[in-house]
Design brief:
Layout (H helix, E strand, L loop, with lengths): L1 H24 L5 E5 L6 H17 L3 E5 L6 H8 L7 E5 L2 H8 L11 E17 L7 H10 L5 E4 L5 H13 L4 E4 L3 H6 L3 E5 H10 L2 E6 L25 E9 L4 H14 L3 H9 L12 H22 L5
Parallel strand pairs: 1-2, 1-3, 5-6
Antiparallel strand pairs: 3-9, 4-7, 4-8, 4-9
Helix pairs in contact: 2-9, 2-10, 4-11
Length: 320
């Protein structure tokens, strides 16, 4: 028995040494960052900016791989099952929290299947409609919607998408159910837009170009890029704030040293002049050092699951 215990202790020591040595030399090869949505969308844009900057800091390329489908749960599930060695990451948005309720059967435990790297950014939403829509401000928009609830439709990029979530919150806020029209992505939804919400990363150019009409932003303060566009609070929709936050995760069991290295690299990337400038053009800002941490991301995910659960259950709109 003594010999067996000695052998087990030796094996454990060798294993611990191997993990420690691996963490110290990390990364030694290309890293894959999974984005659970299609290429060219808002989350993909954020991921590619961050991946490019982190690649420079880490000395290894981070390749962005789009694994779309099932409201982001396919990509998240793939990362949850990946080897926990720091070479497979996930960049997901608020859907990481809402999927815990939207999908009553998930292949992974949202809170416990991942290690947390840090928050990346929180993108505000814009309440928009086609450019020739009659209402001129948010107050008249709400009045029009309430009076024509049987004919007004709300476009979104599919169940679980940021636009779908904002739309549900909007209907809850004005206490008026509306017909929702899901599309396969933000592009088609924007082309046929009748009315709805979407991230500033996807609406900035259209608003600036006058191809759609913007009524309000869902952030606590006005945006630098749209100084004349009121917040929903200012426009009369009290308490209506929706931010589409993004975070970076790795599979459960990723060594703490590796997670710490990734978190520090993320913090550095979010100070990159190019990242800051491009985020600004998209109507958002990078997360602070305090938010680009494992603890902050975990706390955000827990609070957002609790926030959205009653909204989704009240709407009765599930994805499975």
């Amino acid at each position: 028995m003594k010999i067996l215990n000695a052998l087990l202790s030796a094996a454990a020591a060798v294993s611990l040494f191997a993990v420690s040595a691996s963490a110290q030399t990390y990364p030694e090869r290309t890293i894959t960052m999974v984005v659970p949505f299609s290429a060219g969308g808002p989350t993909d844009t954020v991921a590619r900016l961050v991946a490019e900057s982190m690649s420079k800091d880490l000395g290894q390329q981070i390749i962005v791989e789009n694994v779309g489908g099932a409201g982001g749960t396919l990509g998240a599930g793939r990362v949850a099952q990946a080897e926990p060695d720091g070479y497979t990451l996930l960049l997901h948005h608020i859907g990481m929290a809402t999927s815990a309720t939207l999908y009553r059967k998930l292949a992974y435990d949202t809170l416990n299947a991942f290690e947390y790297v840090g928050l990346v950014t929180e993108v505000p939403m814009t309440i928009v409609a086609r450019k020739d829509f009659e209402p001129t401000d948010l107050k008249s928009l709400i009045e029009h919607v309430k009076a024509n609830k049987d004919t007004v439709t709300v476009a979104n990029a599919g169940i679980g998408a940021a636009s779908h979530l904002c739309g549900m919150m909007f209907m809850s806020a004005i206490e008026t159910p509306l017909t929702t029209v899901p599309y396969k992505g933000t592009g088609p939804a924007m082309t046929d837009l009748l009315g709805g919400c979407d991230q500033t990363t996807n609406t900035t150019k259209q608003i600036q170009g006058g191809t759609i009409k913007a009524y309000a932003v869902t952030s606590p303060e006005r945006l630098k890029i749209f100084p004349d566009l009121p917040t929903a609070e200012e426009a009369g929709l009290s308490g209506f704030q929706v931010g589409i936050w993004h975070g970076v995760y790795s599979p459960k069991g990723t060594p703490a040293e590796v997670t710490d290295r990734l978190s520090k690299s993320l913090q550095k990337a979010l100070k990159d002049e190019n990242v800051v400038a491009r985020f600004g053009e998209l109507g958002t800002e990078p997360s602070s050092d305090a938010d680009a941490t494992p603890a902050a991301l975990k706390a955000k995910l827990e609070s957002e699951i609790a926030r959205w659960k009653p909204v989704i259950e009240a709407a009765g709109q599930y994805a499975d």
